[in-house]
């Protein structure tokens, strides 16, 4: 593929693939654990990062490399590292830039698993997380202390789908010499160019819309390639690293590698030594998914808007949140940033509260009752009793999660069929 400035749709189909000697049009799956060295000098150069090349599939794989390059180009970043899950991508991101004694300031409206990781696991490892309400960017500024190593947000937060002002929070981060980490799973690079808005590290769960078919688990970290790790707040990048020949990641790397110090440290320290690598078969699945991401995301967004508008007008519905509804609290900022649609997630509550929510979930047709989002098929869940049940009642209330909340991941069925399915159960409550 030539280096022309191709549009998103074109990159989604072609970026990162160099057709190999077999002339295979599809991206081949390289099912191998390891790669031959040409001689001992070649092997030594690979281990010393003097030469880049394949060593072992825990560290890199040619199929995974296509996936990483493709996501890098779609996000407009400098390098990506694919991992076994979105969850491991989040954990490896944090431990690449923070250690015991350090602090992360995070939005409080997170994916359930991330909340538990930050609230119950990181503190046991000595990394303290301060949760703040992301609706006011000044809350991040107030919570930063001398041990803070990064700010963390999601583009559209769980569970009430508040859109986060990425740009305003990036400004707070950069004023304080801190990187902004953004979990962009709910928007994907098709709906939002998080790096253009100031994100330094972008995380996507490949499991969701990027893969798009509920067929595998994976995650990916994209390094924007422009954060200055020497700016004074990151000893892990300015002091010799015992994990890698005493290298100072922010200082010692030669020019072509210097901007991607973060991505290189993710690969070389946690991925290499803790091992949550993605399987090449799953990388292939996610490449297939990404080929159709632009068409799917547009359709998910269209269908979700139709469902949200229908629910909004329904007499049995108490409330609806969807960032694309004109009277939604998130609409002013979401509509400034999201030019291609507002995503596939809709949440609502019915008159009749918890009992009515349970009845809807237990009897609805067409929507699959399960704990995932971003499948081509429509999904339904009650977060308070499932994905967010590890949170205390107070934590749930602070993040806006009420016991009547029903979460829909709107799929690509015909919207009339989805609306009929919802009307049928609403008639019974
Ligand atoms: C699913 C999800 C994750 C976790 O990703 P897995 O691939 O399931 O580990 C993280 N953040 C968000 C917003 C998610 O939806």
Automatic annotation (TrEMBL):
Q: Superkingdom of the source?
A: Bacteria
**Cofactor(s) needed for function:** pyridoxal 5'-phosphate
Source organism of this protein record: Chlorobium luteolum (strain DSM 273 / BCRC 81028 / 2530) (Pelodictyon luteolum)
Q: Sorted alphabetically, which Gene3D superfamilies does this protein's record hold?
A: Aspartate Aminotransferase, domain 1, Type I PLP-dependent aspartate aminotransferase-like (Major domain)
- Extract one GO cellular component term from the record: cytoplasm
Molecular function GO labels:
cysteine synthase activity; hydrolase activity; O-acetylhomoserine aminocarboxypropyltransferase activity; pyridoxal phosphate binding
Family note = Belongs to the trans-sulfuration enzymes family.
Q: Output this protein's name.
A: O-acetylhomoserine sulfhydrolase
């Amino acid at each position: 593929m030539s280096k022309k400035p191709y549009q998103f749709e074109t990159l989604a189909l072609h970026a990162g693939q160099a057709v190999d000697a077999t002339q295979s049009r599809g991206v081949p799956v390289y099912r191998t654990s390891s790669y031959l060295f040409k001689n001992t000098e070649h092997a030594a150069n690979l281990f010393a990062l003097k030469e880049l090349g394949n060593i072992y599939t825990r560290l890199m794989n040619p199929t995974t490399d296509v996936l990483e390059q493709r996501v890098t180009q779609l996000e407009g970043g400098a390098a990506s590292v694919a991992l076994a899950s979105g969850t491991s991508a989040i954990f490896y991101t944090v431990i690449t830039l923070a250690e015991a004694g350090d602090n992360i300031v995070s939005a409080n409206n997170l994916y359930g698993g991330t909340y538990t990781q930050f609230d119950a696991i990181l503190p046991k490892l000595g990394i303290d997380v301060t949760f703040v309400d992301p609706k006011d960017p000044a809350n991040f500024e107030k919570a930063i202390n001398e041990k803070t190593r990064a700010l963390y947000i999601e583009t559209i937060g769980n569970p009430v789908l508040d859109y986060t002002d990425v740009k305003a929070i990036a400004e707070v981060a950069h004023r304080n010499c801190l990187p902004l980490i953004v979990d962009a799973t709910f928007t994907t690079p098709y709906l939002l160019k998080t790096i253009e808005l100031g994100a330094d590290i972008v995380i996507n769960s490949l499991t969701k819309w990027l893969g798009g078919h509920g067929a595998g688990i994976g995650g990916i970290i994209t390094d924007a390639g422009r954060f200055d790790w020497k700016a004074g707040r990151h000893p892990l990048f300015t002091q010799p690293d015992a994990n890698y020949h005493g290298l100072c990641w922010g200082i010692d790397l030669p020019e072509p590698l210097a901007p991607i110090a973060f991505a290189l440290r993710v690969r070389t320290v946690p991925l290499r030594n803790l091992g949550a690598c993605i399987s090449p078969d799953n990388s292939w699945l996610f490449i297939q998914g990404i080929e159709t991401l632009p068409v799917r995301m547009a359709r998910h967004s269209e269908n979700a808007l139709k469902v949200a508008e229908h629910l909004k007008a329904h007499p049995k519905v108490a409330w609806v949140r969807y960032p694309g509804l004109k009277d939604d609290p998130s609409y002013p900022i979401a509509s400034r940033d999201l030019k291609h649609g507002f995503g596939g997630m809709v949440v609502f509550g019915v008159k009749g509260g918890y009992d009515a929510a349970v009845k809807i979930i237990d009897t609805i047709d067409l929507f699959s009752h399960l704990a995932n989002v971003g499948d081509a098929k429509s999904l339904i869940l009650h977060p308070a009793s499932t994905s967010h049940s590890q949170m205390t009642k107070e934590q749930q209330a602070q993040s806006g999660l009420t016991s009547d909340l029903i979460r829909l991941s709107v799929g690509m069925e015909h919207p009339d069929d989805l609306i009929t399915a919802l009307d049928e159960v609403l008639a019974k409550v």
